[in-house]
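Tutorial, part two.
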Amino acid sequence: MPSCWLYLKINYYRCIPISNQSKIYINCSSTKFNTSLSTTKTSKKGNGSKSLAGVELKLPIKKFWSLSMEITIFCLALVSLVPRGLFTLITLGLARVEARLAERSLLGRAQAAGAPVVWTRDFSDDLAEAFYRINAQWIEEMFALEENDIALLSRPRELILDKGGVVLFAETAEHGVVGTCALMVSKDGWVELTKMGVLKSARGVKAGEFLLAKTLERAASLGMDKIYLLTNRKCAAAIHLYEKLGFVHDETIMRKFGARYERCDVAMSYRPR
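Running the prediction step on this input gives:
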């Protein structure tokens, strides 16, 4: 598990007890961070206060472990460095943190969140069959596979990826790969969002919306700012999703690219708000 360490340097000053059981004392005069652990010995002065002579105490802070005590140690180290009023605000904040952690620890919260319902995967050759199958399924349910469909679905690496495009997949723990979406470099600087399909078994978890959003994020990261798509009025649910995420109907795109598919009677371009 990743961890970080709080390093407290002890000098000749009066120290503050952290734990009566462990007999650990720290000096508030200076702090910095390091990555190791050491032990120390204490000595008693005539005035009864604890002090340490040039000894270094390095206390580990583990992620999701005793967070409230770690924050307390850190704030104790700041006592001599901050005004009293500010330190009072810090201690009040700590009290709130401790109250929330008493309800449920950070580890418990992380475990309760669990794994994501849907995530994305990039294209790999072992997913070529899923790319064909998922898209052929929805196209054949509503239309007929055209020559352009068959070419793209059969040769995605050659016709999409090798030309600078992207193919993403949506995946779930329960159903495996459930959706696909591609970005295909077209002409005049345009990129076509194409071959987006999601299995019926995964539509209840909004896999389509998640996949489309991630595909648009990928496009932005690649500097693809001229994106269009071609579809049909029968795909009403998909058109509504496209509109929701920033696509608008575009007659110029229809005239420029619409002839690529016989079924195409809707063309849209991406214009994020």
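The mean pLDDT is 77. In part three we will examine how such features are distributed along the chain.
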